[in-house]
Write a structure and sequence with these properties.
Strand order of the largest sheet: 1-2-5-3-4
Order of helices and strands: HEEEEHHEHH
Strand content: 15-25%
Number of strands: 5
Largest sheet: 5 strands, mixed
Mean pLDDT: 81
Distance between the termini: 122 Å
Low-confidence stretches: 20-33
Length: about 170
């Protein structure tokens, strides 16, 4: 027959096991959230990029082809212009984080240059949502600044925004 002290020990051990099970289930729900992403929007001129970054292992990372733009890889989307690929990856490369994230982007509007710049801004904003400590370095390098220049609207009586029709003296 067990003494009262031994019964108390057994009860404490059982309670400890119960709390460990609760902690284990909390950890398991965190594993389910491994598909969680951080989303941000980047804009430049007429182009809008909706960017999602996922934490991932280095084999599936953005530097190893895990960078998807409109259901194509980054290199396929921007084709033969490596400058646009570099521009889009710039905020990840600045933090040396291209091996730790997988990137998914939906972009539309504008030209290829403005799309690459909007992707860069969207990634920078998403990285700041992921970790606020990234903000200082990204802000210092100018990645968080949105370029406000837009096409000026056409005015009536003019051919373009400021271009007047040719003046005829007679």
């Amino acid at each position: 027959m067990a003494t009262k002290a031994q019964e108390k020990e057994v009860i404490e051990i059982v309670e400890d096991l119960d709390t460990e099970k609760e902690e284990a289930t909390v950890f398991n729900t965190d594993k389910k959230d491994s598909k969680k992403y951080f989303e941000a929007v980047g804009r430049r001129k007429r182009s809008i990029a909706r960017v999602r970054i996922f934490t991932t292992n280095p084999k599936e990372s953005a530097s190893q082809g895990g960078f998807i733009v409109n259901d194509k890889t980054l290199k396929d989307y921007f084709g033969s212009t490596p400058a646009f690929v570099e521009m889009a990856m710039e905020s990840l490369n600045r933090l040396k984080a291209s091996d730790h994230f997988k990137v998914s982007v939906k972009v539309n509007g504008g030209g290829t240059n403005s799309q690459a710049e909007s992707i860069r801004l969207g990634i920078a904003r998403a990285l700041v949502k992921f970790d606020l400590n990234f903000r200082k370095k990204l802000k210092k390098s100018g990645m968080l600044r949105r370029d406000p220049r837009e096409k000026e609207r056409r005015k009536y009586g003019l051919k373009k925004a400021r271009r007047a029709p040719q003046f005829s003296k007679r």
